[in-house]
Amino acid sequence: MAVKKEDKYPVARRYQIADVQVSREATAVKPQVVVNLIKKAKHPVLITGGQLLKDEKLVEIAVKFYEKGIPIIATGGSSKPLIEKGVNPQSVVFTLHQVTQFLLDEEWKGFDGKGNYDLVLFMGFLPYYLSRMLSALKHFSKITTVALEEFYQPHAKFSFTNLTANKDMYYSMLEEIVNNL
Amino acid sequence: MAVKKEDKYPVARRYQIADVQVSREATAVKPQVVVNLIKKAKHPVLITGGQLLKDEKLVEIAVKFYEKGIPIIATGGSSKPLIEKGVNPQSVVFTLHQVTQFLLDEEWKGFDGKGNYDLVLFMGFLPYYLSRMLSALKHFSKITTVALEEFYQPHAKFSFTNLTANKDMYYSMLEEIVNNL
Amino acid sequence: RIGKVIEEAEEWAEEMGPTPKPGIIELRKWDMKLLERYEPFYAPVQDFCNLCTMGPCDLSQNKKGACGIDLKTAKARLVTIACCIGAASHGGHARHLLDHLIEELGEDYPIDLGGNVNVEAPIIRTVVGIRPRTLGDLKEAMEWAEKELMRVLHATHIGNEESYLDYESKAMHISMVDHVLMEIADIAQIVAYNMPKAEPNVPLTDTGFGIVDKNKPVIVVVGHNVLYSKPILDYLEEMGRLDDFEIAGLCCAVHDMTRVSGGRAKIFGPISYQLRVIRSGIPDVMISDEQCIRADLLQACKAMGIPLIATSDAAARGLPDASDWPVEKIVNALVTGELPGVFLPVPEKVGQVAPLVAEAIFKKHGGNRKYRFFANDEELWNEINKCTQCMNCVFTCPHNLRIDQGMAHAQKTKDLSKLAKLEEQCIACGKCEQACPKNIKIINVIMASNFDRLYNKKGKMRVGRGPIQDTEIRNVGQPIVMGQIPGVIAAVGCANYPDEAKSLREILEEFVKRRYIVVTSGCHAITLGMITDEEGQTLYEKTPGDFDAGGLANVGSCVANSHIAGAAIKIANIFAMRPLRGNYAEIADYVLNRVGAVGFSWGPYSPKAAAIATGFNRLGVPVVVGPHGAKYRRAYLGKYFKKEKWWVYDIKTRSKVPIEPAPDALLVAVETKEEAIVQLARLCIRPNDTSLGRQIKLTHYLELSQKYLGKLPDDWHLFVRSEADLPLKMKDELLHILESEYGWKIDWDKKKILEGPIRRYDAGFNPTIVEEVYEKYAGEKPPQ
Amino acid sequence: RIGKVIEEAEEWAEEMGPTPKPGIIELRKWDMKLLERYEPFYAPVQDFCNLCTMGPCDLSQNKKGACGIDLKTAKARLVTIACCIGAASHGGHARHLLDHLIEELGEDYPIDLGGNVNVEAPIIRTVVGIRPRTLGDLKEAMEWAEKELMRVLHATHIGNEESYLDYESKAMHISMVDHVLMEIADIAQIVAYNMPKAEPNVPLTDTGFGIVDKNKPVIVVVGHNVLYSKPILDYLEEMGRLDDFEIAGLCCAVHDMTRVSGGRAKIFGPISYQLRVIRSGIPDVMISDEQCIRADLLQACKAMGIPLIATSDAAARGLPDASDWPVEKIVNALVTGELPGVFLPVPEKVGQVAPLVAEAIFKKHGGNRKYRFFANDEELWNEINKCTQCMNCVFTCPHNLRIDQGMAHAQKTKDLSKLAKLEEQCIACGKCEQACPKNIKIINVIMASNFDRLYNKKGKMRVGRGPIQDTEIRNVGQPIVMGQIPGVIAAVGCANYPDEAKSLREILEEFVKRRYIVVTSGCHAITLGMITDEEGQTLYEKTPGDFDAGGLANVGSCVANSHIAGAAIKIANIFAMRPLRGNYAEIADYVLNRVGAVGFSWGPYSPKAAAIATGFNRLGVPVVVGPHGAKYRRAYLGKYFKKEKWWVYDIKTRSKVPIEPAPDALLVAVETKEEAIVQLARLCIRPNDTSLGRQIKLTHYLELSQKYLGKLPDDWHLFVRSEADLPLKMKDELLHILESEYGWKIDWDKKKILEGPIRRYDAGFNPTIVEEVYEKYAGEKPPQ
Q1: Which of C211, C736, D315, D746 is most buried, judging by how many CB atoms fall within 10 Å of its CB?
Q2: ipTM above 0.90?
């Protein structure tokens, strides 16, 4: 169910041309694939980043995720607008850097004590900062990572394609996910 | 005219998985594309490598290239079997390393004094040795490079796909080129 | 040799500690202690290695390469190499200075840092185990450092370390060496060039494009080593012509020029201003020395017709060596344009040549510098109209700046404001231009779009003060160790900021206002001197320069970072009477457990910054970096949930005590300024805080978390040892939360906590994680 | 200081040359001379850079990154870093040895290399400008080297060099330093450990799996620093128990063990034999020190139940430091398997622990070492049958070995011969196993398939002789410089051979037979000791060990490479009376124009090899590398067609003379053994050859070209200055070709060449490309 040419999706251009690796690049996916991944997951979580402070629409989407029962780990200060909208994040003070370190530890029980997460969604991060964390998870963990970003993230397991030319499409893809959960 | 999936060609797997670059990988091409490139070229040349000493079929092919008017620069000792079969190489003593250095010099007049070459075909090299030379030409020259090798060469401008599983196909592709010149 | 030892012993009564001039092995145990708790985290940029000819090798998913190395170990090796390069940079700088100054002033030239500094060279004392009294004494430390560099770099050769932990230990070792080298360099230049000696009240110096008098010949210096540019000042002073020229510059070279000239040299800006300055056409001559200079400087200057004088052997730039040429010949070659630049590693000659060239070039244009990124508006719009929004620039920009949107908006509306906004964030690296298929001069477009603001920018930076006084340490030592001064925030490093530069001020202003001690250096110090508030004032103008609560102390250029590490060490020595000499582990252990200092680098970019940070880490000082810092690949991140890792030996109770995870990281990258603020406050907490100190630290931590994260932090309860630790204003509320959410037992009559904390507070608490330190003070082996 | 200078002057009458203890600048002019003619060639492996946090940056098509560096300059910087790491490795090694030996023997321990070596330490004399007479004197050279390392590494920091030429100059500088460091290390160990001192007739030592007596406890050493393994010999000798143990090893560690033990230690094989040896299960204890050791050694040993003792601080391998433990505790921990290994950086303790552990482990299995890659045939076939020919292994193998075909053939026919054939080429890097989705133990399959041949392999290596005698130089100096000895071929370096190892012998045998001087060292020397002919003899057994025509001189381990460079220098000094002291450029210029020596590394893989080669290059010695050498990214390749680049000053005729392109490359990678042979012969030609010498060199060049390339080489006519240069047997034929093909004018009566050559031969020809050398001997400025 990867994005195919005939779907007229934009090409999956990396957020940074020089961030290449030997290992497989992320599969560019449609919203429905993400929906299926979430439904199949035993312990999914959404991690939100600091760019929510600059994009209200992302806050709105995150709230909907939360309302559909997806727990949220809020980083980068994204907790503030989320809490204002009634979200109770599992964590607000740890950076994505720290959360990634925790995720890499198979013994970690998660912030909710239910064990480590098996599916991690990322939304609202600086592309270059997120990319390094996805790289760490790609090489040193078995967690399924999904980047729900405007920029295509090559080191995720699954990522939206490059949507920089069409922000509306980006938002509508996010909408499609939360509406189908 | 690149190789497409529907053509049932083998996938273009790099000769070495870790030899990745940011810049474009070689277009995997069919024999006819190579024929067209040669026909269009103003000053083409075939460079043969030391693996001709271990593969008589490649010697045979090189001889046919020569008979069709493609001059040959013989490196790695490949001149010996070629000369035995009547080829008069433009050069026999310079290594591919040196020849590549010459090719990078826009002022070079070629071994034949006709000016630098515009299309360079490579056949019969150790994959890792050839790869470095193709990389140099990719980044520091405008020459069109074509790898006619059993292994797919990512840093050429054009390359045969990975044919390691089917040596007959490799030979027949070479045949197809020389027969259509 | 023996004579020397005796002589030293007479001079310095302090007993020699266990590890003078340590090699790789001597402090390995300390490193392993840190690494056990602060587990290395690796975020590979590339997942393959091509450092030997058996490669390239695919190391993805932690596979092993042909030599047997796996991805983690390969990354740790790369970090070690980076730290080696960083240390070598400060070392090359220090060695140049030292050799030059000894030649000029003699081996016996005394090290005198003024009456307020008796514990000079705290790092050298602690690490090397000597007390340097002369420039010649610094050579002993220098030679030891050079020896260690070779040893550590040796270990990065194929087929050495198997364990990433051992590479981390080596990275820490060479980074500690780096701190020694910075100290050598800065002490040498302070005493030889009479830079401010631990003076809080140093003059302010001008910053920004707006302060350069464009009606004078403009000499611009860039780089890090004042050795080559100081002679320009000397020569002009000698000639009585200082007022006829503008001497301005970028990065640490001008930082130190302001220190030698009492603020006379002017600061264009940090490292990211290089292309801004060159392409503005303002410089009449450019002097480059070493480090962090654009590797296309000659090309860039040539394109603008600015003659270049390269001075350092670290960056000869392919230019002809003019050392032996007469001054006239050099000047002539540069002014006529016969040569675009020369390599002139002779400081005295640079002093003469630079003004002569600047003057001659100035005469040519007569002060009529027409060039301002574009000759006219038409040219600017021609460039803008070329853009097709292909996005190549966006996908190569380090910040993914939306140049496409700025261009499109301008094309559609003739409004440059979106492009102008980019100027605030752009580090002017020029990659966009390399990627642009239309060859648009994107940097110039961005700069021209914000021309008036950029060109008229003015600010003030307090000149680098050098070391912290012993008296200052005496004043703040106790409140820092006890916790009443909530922390020391050291904002250091490069200018690869993730956001508009003003975010740096916003972050630090929080801490200045809350009466933390804020210190700064390098490009961070420069940036702070360029960000003005509505009243047109920089943070320097609003705060004192003391190393004290509410102060903002600029110690100086990159090498002055040593004074920040030195201050932490001096607290252990001057306040706590811990001996320094060859006693590194005890001091670092003291700092880790007691000194609430946190390093902060909002825009770190270089191997030098990596070495500086790692050196702080080994000393027990956590460092918070901006998001680009994640690209250093390695962080040190503890895990609050691994309870077995959070313990100390308590010398008082003779027991092994579980502790709160404080600090819980040694190197962490944050994404936003909000996150930076909260993490900085959080990482100031130390096990040794008194109740009052903890109360103050928690007050700030909780307030800042509420302000920026919207609620109390997740982990605040971990830091509560008793009700006395609770912020007064919130005490009741917090007790309720502890009871209801965390299940603690509260005696509501006495408002006392009965059960819950990781440990109880004990006024005599005397923590250490070093067995030898425990034994030294407890007189027995540590408990198991 | 002054006292010291006077004392030295008394001791060493030679006048100080222009560049003692040179920095980066002093020899830059010489480098630029070389680089002008031998243009750097870059073959990027990766086309992007991620060394700073502004990156990663796309540098493809020579784009510039965020710091302004372009792809070529970035590659030159990487080469500089590699050479720094290489030099640091030899330096770390040298420093360890030196400190240890001085502690043991004192600073005044004399440097005595025997009666036949009066010009000891030729590199140190030439470069550093001192004549070391004691171990303490070596420290002065060591400290200078450490200083230079820091300076050069400094230059690799972001924002320094703009020009790839300047990076190349720095790479050459640190590589010259590398040669000094190798000389320090080898001289120190020769004099302290009484290794052979320039002795051509050293004993032969056993090589190969077949020579290890498996009925004794087997102690295996791996690495490069004999300091840690020599005490094992000392201890066993002291105990009178040498005969009760087998002491064998790999790589330079055992190379030097054979030198200290008079050939008593046995050689398993070169670096590529590590996994072969470990997985064979033969070792009872493994001693590792530093460099080129598998980074998964502990894992590999653990899997086989072999206890590991890591000794060097360059590779502590994450193991607990057992320095302070009693011997019994260490032995017990290792023998019981409580610990898989220990870090024991105390040589004396290693000497005691290793035999005790080996004996205890041996007692456990009683000499009944069942394990031979697989417990039985069934296991082997189970592995083979897992293979699906997915090709993952082939696409990760450094040689793209067709493992798939070997497996398929075995599956189909039960014939292991195709797999066995792979063993001859396999460097046992193990990447195939990392890539295999079926987790097939591919290395074991390959080794087991060739089990009998591998396990019974036997050979002889002549023990490392150390330096070349002054008398030998006196004998061969003139014939080398005049050309009657057609050349010196120095086969050095690592074992990443592109082909079966026997190709190395085939190449060198050509030159031994043709009475070139062949010298060897390191893994090449070991490999030559393992390849036997039909009579079961190695090349050593068939040739004398002299540095003379037709000889095969093994100088020793990697650090003994210094004696090869030293021999070239001594020719200039002993034969030509050129002063050495601080006189590098003149000596290198002499070597380039007169000494027909060529370095050859068939399987170079490491940064050390890069530094060694680059050090030879700066000295004017060309180096031919095998095809993997192309991955060093940079070569130095001249262009025969750029006529303006091929000139010298002739001191005799006081003129600037065009010359033949000889040698026309300083670093070139060949693809095949045939090509290697021809290039080696070709690159021995020097401008200074006499007619007789040129005739001899051309004879070999032409014959070898005809033999291996099928015809005369393309460029032979360029090397003909007069008819006297022509090979006698072919003279007429060649004159005809010159006339008909190249349009030369021939006087057929006298059989003389009238017109055609680039220049005429002149018996007094006195070439130099260094202005200062010209001036020194001509007494005037050089002509334009």
Answers
A1: D315
A2: yes
